[in-house]
């Protein structure tokens, strides 16, 4: 509920994933469509992360650059703000500096999106968020 440098990094990471995939991270989607965060993590873990890329691009991109962007996006949406990279690190990486990125961890709220065993943990639509305590920057 508080804005910070690390919440800005989270927003940046979501934007990167949305741009690469041409898919919004909203909950207004067809019921059978996998949420962007689930899809990104599933493809990352299956080592098929380039399947996340918008098909309109028709391979008109450098795979290593897109993988780097997706990696940055996934690191930026880490559950623990301490694990998110700082924006100056992200800028350096995007400018071509050789920085070893840690492997991202799946957010705790992901669970298994298709498992009916714990509907609250696996369905992000059932999560509640208190937005009454918003502070301007």
From TrEMBL:
Biased composition, class Polar residues, residue ranges: 111-131
Region (Disordered): 111-137
Gene3D superfamilies: Transferase(Phosphotransferase) domain 1
Protein name: Protein kinase domain-containing protein
